[in-house]
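Journal club prep — side note

Before the paper discussion, L.F. wants everyone to see what a predicted structure for a comparable chain looks like in token form. Sequence:
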Amino acid sequence: MTSTTASRGHPVLLLLCGLAIAHATLASTATLAPELRQQASLGLLPGEILSYLLTEVSLLTLSAGVLGTVLAGLTTGVSSDLVPEAPTALAVGLAAALVPAWRASARAHSDRSPRGSTMSFPHARGRLRAAIVQLSGIPGRTLLCLAAVAIGGWELVLLLGTHQSPGDTAATGLAVLLAAFVVADAGWSSVRDRGPELADLRIQGLLGIQVAGLVMRELAVVVCLGTALGGTAGLTVVAFAS
């Protein structure tokens, strides 16, 4: 890792990794909500559920940190800079997952039961508004996805508008890939969480491509808005730098 990458690319990648972990934890705990409520009904305390969720995140992030250290050592040679990578990955993972996991453990002990919902296919003029309404219903996941796309767009604009070292170019590529991963995870989570609703639309006679269009429209809103925000910020930096 070059010094330039360490000064800018490395923190950006860690931030994007944290956003990806936080988003994945939010999506995972939403899916596990019935199981967590069952564990709470069996007598598990919120702290025990929180510990269970954070343990999963710890194992995943620590394994990823070790794997990343090994791969970096094989490709660049063993360096003292690689020693703290695994603990850093663990710290980033725990920090990113703490709030979503804590909220999930607290909700498991609440008396709120999941509410069923029905979904109707919106008129063409109202489909954009329907996408915005759906995104506003999951503000945490939407904001995390929006932030990841904005950071990826910001990095890409800096790459195109300023002189970059090979290390920074590689970091920008990884940043864009991480942002794309968060968007893909958001789409997958949306389809998984709204399975019954989307199946109901198919029963109403909608084609699969029309149902997929609803989810794609929501992702397009996030991608366009995030890219606009990140691109504007990047252009501002490039303008001041020149």
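L.F.'s comment for the group: Residues 1-7, 112-119 have pLDDT under 50 and may be disordered. Keep this in mind when we get to the figures.
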